[in-house]
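Hypothesis: this fold can be encoded by more than one sequence.
Test: take the structure tokens below, design a sequence, compare later.
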């Protein structure tokens, strides 16, 4: 089954929980200054650690009979950063190959996504690109993911509308299904001040082949709930197009969360209940975790949604 068919025929799809934070805290593996965890597959114990974490999330999907989405740890592996540290296109191809190896060892319905991100700091909206330059900049990575044979593309924690538009243009050209995930404040806006509704409207009108859906990641469900409750986001467009969250376990704003030295964690039941409350304001189809989550959080989120279907 293709990813699009999966998306259209399933009411709930499970996405992975945290990887980076867990690699640091549970395995003592630190991110590279430039490409973060994109090179983890080349480090001693890195691939094994990734497999252990992904397999925990895969087990949750299997227990709850849910399709599973996993993304490569390549948000920072853009053309500029990859070249800076002496890697080449193989870092993208090898990350996809690693996930394919994992999928070959499972017996669940699993889809592989190529994770991309903004050029600058997603938590501060600095060094953002305008649409034309963003399209050119992100096409390198998008095209390599296409070459590697991913099932979908995923733009994570995107903070500014101009770069989102260019990213969508780059992804559109690949003919792969793609998802845009925003960095959102409780004010109902991206970090550059654009409302969720306006961001969706402007991206959809800038491309011929629209994103499969929109979502938000690295955000607590209660923060997203507040963001979606603003009248300017209580629109038919948002309800029709916004369908997912990769939740973190902290309610801190982006700047404080990014600079925090302590892991901000919350009870798995509390997080699951906050996730399900989002169904009051949107149709939630893709559910997963971000910073602070582990397999216990993802398990409780999945079982909560299954029991309340």
């Amino acid at each position: 089954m293709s990813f699009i068919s999966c998306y259209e025929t399933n009411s709930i799809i499970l996405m992975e929980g945290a990887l980076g934070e867990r690699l640091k805290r549970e395995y003592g593996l630190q991110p590279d200054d430039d490409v973060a965890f994109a090179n983890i597959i080349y480090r001693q114990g890195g691939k094994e650690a990734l497999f252990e974490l992904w397999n925990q999330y895969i087990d949750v999907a299997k227990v709850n009979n849910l399709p599973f989405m996993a993304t490569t740890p390549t948000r920072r592996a853009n053309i500029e950063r990859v070249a800076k540290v002496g890697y080449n296109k193989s870092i993208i191809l090898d990350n996809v190959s690693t996930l394919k190896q994992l999928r070959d060892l499972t017996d669940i319905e699993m889809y592989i996504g190529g994770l991309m991100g903004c050029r600058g700091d997603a938590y501060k909206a600095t060094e953002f690109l305008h649409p034309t330059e963003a399209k050119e900049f992100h096409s390198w990575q998008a095209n390599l993911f296409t070459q590697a044979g991913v099932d979908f593309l995923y733009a994570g924690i995107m903070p500014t509308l101009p770069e989102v538009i260019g990213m969508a243009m780059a992804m559109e050209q690949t003919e792969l299904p793609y998802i845009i995930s925003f960095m959102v404040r409780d004010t109902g806006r991206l970090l550059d001040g654009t409302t969720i509704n306006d961001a969706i409207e402007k991206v959809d009108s800038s491309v011929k082949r629209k994103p499969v859906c929109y979502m938000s990641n690295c955000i607590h469900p209660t923060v997203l709930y507040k963001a979606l409750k603003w009248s300017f986001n209580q629109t038919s467009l948002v309800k029709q197009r916004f369908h997912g969250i990769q939740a973190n376990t902290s309610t801190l704003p982006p700047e404080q969360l990014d600079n925090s030295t302590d892991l901000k964690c919350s009870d798995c039941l509390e997080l699951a209940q906050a996730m399900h409350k989002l169904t009051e304001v949107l149709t939630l189809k893709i559910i997963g975790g971000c910073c602070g989550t582990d397999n216990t959080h993802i398990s409780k989120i999945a079982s909560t949604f299954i029991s309340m279907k």
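The beta strands are 13-15, 68-71, 110-116, 152-158, 178-182, 213-219, 242-247, 286-289. The domain at 3-307 is CATH 3.20.20.330 (TIM Barrel).
Hypothesis status: open.
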